[in-house]
Amino acid sequence: MMQDSIDFGTMNIPKLFRKMFIPTLLGMVLSATITIIDGIFVGRGVGSDALAAVNIVAPFFMLSAGIGLMFGVGASIVASIHLAHNKVKVASINITQAITVSLSITVLLCALVMLFRTDMAYLLGSSDLLLPLVLEYMNWIVPFLACNMLLSVGLFVIRLDGSPTFAMMCSAVPAAINLVLDYVLVFPLQLGLAGAAIASVISVVVGSIMILVYLLKYNKVLYLYRPKFSLKSIRLTIRNIGYMIKLGFSAFLNEAAIACMMLVGNYVFIHYLGEDGVAAYSVACYWFPIVFMVNNAIAQSTQPIISYNYGAGQWIRVKQAFRLSLKFAIICGALACLVTIVLCPAVVSLFLGSTGNAREIAIQGIPYFALGFLFFALNIVCIGYFQSIEKFKQATFFTVLRGIVIITVCFVSLPLLWGIKGIWLAVPFTELITFAIIVSYYLRQHFKR
Known about the structure:
Blueprint: H1 13-45, H2 48-84, H3 88-115, H4 117-123, H5 131-141, H6 145-160, H7 164-186, H8 192-218, H9 231-311, H10 315-352, H11 357-370, H12 373-388, H13 392-418, H14 420-448
Helix pairs in contact: 1-2, 1-7, 1-8, 1-9, 1-10, 2-3, 2-5, 2-6, 2-9, 3-6, 3-9, 4-5, 5-8, 6-7, 6-8, 7-8, 9-10, 9-11, 9-12, 9-13, 10-11, 10-12, 11-14, 12-13, 12-14, 13-14
């Protein structure tokens, strides 16, 4: 079992950040490849309509991962603070409550979606033409979203337990399994969209099993308690869960923001450009998780460092970790923008082949979409900082602003001003406006102090 020597309270901040960031980054990038590999095999092996269908179902992935992130961030912050005060049992109880409740919520939501799956498909923007493909993919994916959620929340717990390398393996192993099975099921076995869905299901099931095995047998500090159902226990669980949700709600909204970006974008693209427009937009949505995961790795690597030292009252270490995360965000955001613009034709061809209307739409539009990556990186890190120091109101406000309010306004208004180019610029404008608001707030608070 891979375990790491980590002391959040005394270790040199740059060294501590590297020990957290490198395995977290590798794990998250490998995890994002599950989505990207699916897109490549679906686009080349099944067709652009299937790719559009997957993009319509994708918000369910975001929802399950968002629930996992919400409880993972919330429980990790609370447990970090308890560990800073040597309250190991309390921290472990918080972790147990987070996993138990998040699993229950996800299972209930999956049951409701399956009960009304046709209505949900239309609600997510499916056309009559795409409906059979959307339902085919949903029937395989939705019942196993609880495993995707458990994988999301479990990675936080394992990193906090001091084993970021094993957390990386919990992402790397499913990614490798998905790669092999995607090829086998889509091409030699010719199972089409169902094959890609089965490959994804098997990979996340394996990842969730790895999480459970670690927590039950190989944990170092944190461990799972048997749930209690006395009135007092239920009351305390509700109180603790409520606080975790407050702390982690903006993390859920980050995923909801991506789901909203996909949902509103699907509606706008299908309105202006039809199914080819949705297929072109799906390439951007497949590529975007890589950018998101890299910057989320920065935020999640600094979160336990900031939360632990915030709980211990070591503000110099808190500020040092935050400044370091900003530097990495600038570098990673700028590189993501440059790489996407330069490699755009090659990336699009991986998904949509060398010809076709959807391919041309994507090649013309994705460079505009990539202009927002730098500000997106800074926004994710800043919101993560507010989460880590228990400023959940600010974190939630900025996340709702960028993920729901501003992006909806931009998707509706910018096409009226600049046509098709305006659709692609909706996300960059959203990130730029949000970053300007966050900077204004931070400077105002700084001058007040």
